TrEMBL record, chain A:
The keyword Cell membrane applies. It is found in: Cell membrane. It is a peripheral membrane protein. It catalyses: Ni(2+)(out) + ATP + H2O = Ni(2+)(in) + ADP + phosphate + H(+). One of its GO terms (molecular function) is ABC-type nickel transporter activity. Its main location: membrane. The complex is composed of two ATP-binding proteins (NikD and NikE), two transmembrane proteins (NikB and NikC) and a solute-binding protein (NikA). InterPro entries: AAA+_ATPase, ABC_Ni/Peptide_Import, ABC_transporter-like_ATP-bd, ABC_transporter-like_CS, Oligopep_ABC_C, P-loop_NTPase. Residues 6-272 form the ABC transporter domain. This is Nickel import system ATP-binding protein NikD.
From TrEMBL, chain B:
GO terms for biological process: transmembrane transport. This is Peptide/nickel transport system permease protein. The chain crosses the membrane at residues 12-32, 99-121, 133-161, 254-276, 296-322. Its main location: membrane.
Length: 371, 332
């Protein structure tokens, strides 16, 4: 198998706030192969967006990438080495900010943001914005860039692209604007597109159209995608492989089918139980109890143990190892849960958590939900 | 097309505003205590003389008749005759208004040219020493009365250092023959600018301070917008982001403030003109009030009102020019 185009290893990004250090991304690793659509799934606050901005090296103050390696086609986007006094410092191979800007951003890796209503500049014409990014990232003349822009607008399904090229963003609907943003990303001919919840702000019909469009164009241009979402339905529809994030960590990673049908991590299990599935019928959906804890002081041991229905005493003490637990018929299936480790999970006593009865208290009983 | 339509509708909307300004000016002047006739004729005029004067100025008419007379006069650009100067009010205003506009223009230019870069630098270096210095300067500028700044400037730069003159403002359109040491019109302009520096700083400091703060905060806000992040993610350089992608959006609040500050600046012009003995509108209005010259008071107040209305219209129009959403006509 060929080398993955994007390889993230043990990436750590922290925010240094007055309340303390927020470990927003805490040692995640994943790969993206050529032409592959990789999902990054998790609840709000899991660190998905911080992970993507770390890959682009666009983390904003007070955030900082503090460790790990991100390799894109052999180039080190993030790379650290040990300095003489044992401190981590940027390695000489790590691209400078200027190199990132000129060689990577837009040209190699493009990004699609969540909210199309905010992502276009209201005072410039849509076409001019498109043309500018094409000019910067494809080294073409302004005239040629305009042709590319109009072609691309047509490609993403904007009617009358020559006319719409001269329109302002406020003259477009949300779905149309997201098409423009997708046109922008594809027109720069990057090999990787990071889509940060690109359909979250759209209604379901428009979301469906956009997903179909992305699938078609992805096949046509063979672009790789990192698709960030909290919606497992979207994941099932378009992703090849999925990474599930919880509180700054990736806790499970598998091919999309394996993730849905041979689920290993209790968190992924819980996520799947909380949404309706066409392949299973249940009387009542089962939401995940409690809210995700703060990333300033993450729970000890397994970070999910406070909400885990299967939590046992050992979960509080042992931080699980992220390891391959694939069956012979799976390509690879990584999970981070003590259930799959020899640390005494089977003999440990079960733990009172928000997900087990002791904490769920009156709310559940009042609804008559006696499991 | 949207912009043209917007401009026309905005201009039409200003007509009732101007009529309102005229009405209020008229009523307020009428309400001023004291009898102008008495002032014109001295302590104990004969009843006959007083009657004659009243008839001459139409003061014997009832209020509503006088009001409509005045309204029609204004439409014909006749603001009456100044009682104090004995010349038409329009002539006096034509003489003085350009001086004040010259001063306003120069101090707003000074304020904008310093405030915009200072605000942007502060925003880019938030909470760094440059930002703190600009904050202190702005605080000083907002909290210091302009006449005090004027007097201090005169003491330091005219009295002690003798670099800049404190009185006798020379206007750039004066003929070279009337100006000492100016060989041609360019010489006059140079001298005029030299004279204008202290009054400009005096009047412009307050505006500069206010503009700097607005520029800083709106720039900071725009730099956090998604479209700025998008531009960054597509490899646009920071310089270009500030100059192009953020700049236009960041000027919107400033444009509003510039329009509103015009009233404040007119008030400041009264003080500045007094401190530097400049014969502009500010001193004219003071003279008019002190001498109960009711025609002149009405005329000058009306002009101040008009200047403000024009300022607001210009604000709206520049807004429409900068932000396409304002003049958008709704057809998609």
């Amino acid at each position: 198998m060929s080398e993955p185009i994007l390889k993230v290893e043990n990436l750590k990004t922290q925010f240094f706030t007055e309340e303390g250090t927020v470990r927003a991304v805490d040692g995640i690793s994943f790969e993206v192969n050529e032409g592959e659509l990789v999902g990054l799934v998790g609840e709000s606050g899991a660190g998905k967006s911080v992970a993507t901005s770390s890959i682009m090296r666009l983390v904003e103050d007070p955030g900082e990438i503090v460790g790990g390696t991100v390799t894109y086609k052999g180039k080190k986007i993030v790379d650290f080495e040990e300095g003489p006094d044992g401190e981590l410092r940027r390695s000489p191979e790590m691209l400078s900010n200027e190199e990132m800007r000129k060689q990577i951003r837009g040209r190699e890796i493009a990004i699609i943001f969540q909210d199309p209503m905010e992502a276009l500049n209201p005072v410039f014409k849509v076409g001019a914005q498109l043309r500018e990014f094409i000019e910067i990232n494809r080294d073409v003349s302004s005239k040629r860039a305009k042709e590319i822009a109009v072609d691309m607008l047509r490609e993403v399904g904007i009617p009358e692209p020559e006319k719409r090229y001269e329109s302002y963003p406020h003259q477009f609907s949300g779905g149309m604007r997201q098409r423009v943003i997708i046109a922008m990303a594809l027109a720069c001919e990057p090999d990787l597109i990071i889509a940060d919840e690109p359909t979250t702000a759209l209604d379901v019909t428009v979301e469906g159209q956009i997903l179909d469009l992305v699938e078609d164009l992805q096949q046509k241009y063979n672009t790789s995608f990192v698709w960030v979402t909290h919606d497992l339905g979207v994941v099932a529809e378009i992703c090849d492989r999925v990474n599930v994030m919880y509180l700054g960590e990736i806790i499970e990673q598998a091919d999309v089918d394996d993730l849905f049908h041979a689920t290993r991590h209790p968190y992924t299990e819980a996520l799947l139980n909380s949404i309706p599935r066409p392949d299973q019928s249940v009387d009542e959906l089962n939401p995940i109890k409690g809210v995700m804890p703060e990333a300033i002081n993450p729970p000890s041991g397994c970070r999910f143990h406070t909400r885990c229905p299967e939590a046992r005493t050992v979960c509080k003490e042992v931080h699980p190892t992220y390891q391959d637990v694939s069956d012979p018929d799976e390509s690879s299936h990584f999970v981070s849960c003590v259930k799959y480790e020899d640390v005494g999970y089977d003999d440990a006593e079960s733990l009172d958590t928000e997900a087990t009865d002791a904490f769920s208290g009156g709310l559940v009983e009042a609804r008559g939900d006696g499991q | 097309m949207g912009r043209l339509r917007y401009t026309i509708s905005r201009l039409l909307q200003s007509i009732p505003v101007i009529v309102g300004v005229i009405t209020i000016t008229f009523l307020l002047t009428d309400a001023i205590p004291g009898d102008p006739v008495q002032i014109m004729l001295g302590p104990s005029p004969s009843a006959q003389q007083a009657e004659a004067i009243r008839a001459k100025f139409g003061l014997d008419q009832p209020l509503h008749v006088r009001y409509f007379n005045y309204l029609f006069d204004v439409v014909r650009l006749d603001l009456g005759t100044s009682l104090y100067y004995g010349v038409p009010v329009t002539q006096k205003i034509a003489e003085r208004l350009p001086v004040t506009l010259y001063l306003l223009l120069s101090s707003f230019t000074f304020a904008l040219l310093t405030a915009v870069p200072l605000g942007i630098i502060s925003a880019k270096r938030r909470n760094k020493p440059t930002d703190h210095i600009s904050r202190v300067v702005a605080l000083f500028g907002v909290s210091t009365p302009s006449f005090w700044i004027g007097l201090m400037l005169i003491i330091v730069f005219s009295f002690w250092l003798d670099i800049f003159p404190a009185t006798n403002l020379i206007l750039p359109w004066e003929s070279p023959a009337n100006v000492d040491g100016a060989a041609n019109q360019l010489g006059v302009i140079a001298k005029s600018i030299h004279h204008l520096i202290l009054p400009t700083i005096t009047l412009g400091t307050l505006q500069m301070a206010a503009f700097t703060r607005i520029e800083r905060s709106s720039m900071l806000e725009v730099l956090g917008e998604e479209y700025v992040k998008l531009a960054r993610a597509y490899g646009v350089s920071e310089t270009k982001i500030v100059r192009k992608h953020a700049f236009r959006n960041a000027q919107l609040p400033l444009i509003t403030l510039v329009g509103l500050q015009l009233t404040g600046a007119l008030g400041g012009a009264v003080l500045t003109e007094t401190v530097f003995s400049i014969n502009g509108m500010g001193r004219l209005i003071i003279t008019a009030i002190q001498n109960q010259d009711f025609q002149l008071v009405m005329g000058t107040t009306l002009v101040f009102g008009l200047v403000f209305v024009i300022g607001v219209i210009l604000t709206d129009l520049s807004y429409a020019y900068v932000d396409p959403r304002v003049s958008f006509d709704g057809s998609e």
